[in-house]
Amino acid sequence: MCDISLEFAGGAELLFESRKKQSVSLPPQDRPWTIDLLVKWLAKNLLKGNPEMFIHADGSGVRPGILVLINEIDWELLGGKDYRIQNNDSILFVSTLHGG
């Protein structure tokens, strides 16, 4: 099992019942947990708002405009969607898209 801390900000929390912070225990599986697998798991298990506001329509990952930080580091510097999640990681999803 992998225990992680999730945080949603910039409006992304509205897609997750306005819960800004959540602790999650990811279920065991045969392959390592990656950000890509986490996003799909979030969409299936925790996402309550419009999925198109969080993930690509084809399910290939977070949509543009969602900044992902892992332990306060931009996920792109850590391998992007292929980053292997570690126990006690802190993962922040920030929406940078705003209407005007």
From TrEMBL:
Pathway: tRNA modification; 5-methoxycarbonylmethyl-2-thiouridine-tRNA biosynthesis. It comes from the Eukaryota. One of its GO terms (cellular component) is cytosol. The keyword Manganese does not apply. Keywords: Cytoplasm, Isopeptide bond, tRNA processing, Ubl conjugation pathway. There is a cross-link at G100 (Glycyl lysine isopeptide (Gly-Lys) (interchain with K-? in acceptor proteins)). C-terminal thiocarboxylation occurs in 2 steps, it is first acyl-adenylated (-COAMP) via the hesA/moeB/thiF part of the MOCS3/UBA4 homolog, then thiocarboxylated (-COSH) via the rhodanese domain of the MOCS3/UBA4 homolog. GO terms for biological process: protein urmylation; tRNA thio-modification; tRNA wobble uridine modification. The modification 1-thioglycine is found at G100. InterPro entries: Beta-grasp_dom_sf (IPR012675), Mopterin_synth/thiamin_S_b (IPR016155), Urm1 (IPR015221). It is found in: Cytoplasm. Its main location: cytoplasm. Acts as a sulfur carrier required for 2-thiolation of mcm(5)S(2)U at tRNA wobble positions of cytosolic tRNA(Lys), tRNA(Glu) and tRNA(Gln). Serves as sulfur donor in tRNA 2-thiolation reaction by being thiocarboxylated (-COSH) at its C-terminus by the MOCS3/UBA4 homolog. The sulfur is then transferred to tRNA to form 2-thiolation of mcm(5)S(2)U. Also acts as a ubiquitin-like protein (UBL) that is covalently conjugated via an isopeptide bond to lysine residues of target proteins. PANTHER family: RURM1 PROTEIN. HAMAP family: Urm1. Belongs to the URM1 family. This is Ubiquitin-related modifier 1 homolog. It comes from Galendromus occidentalis (western predatory mite).
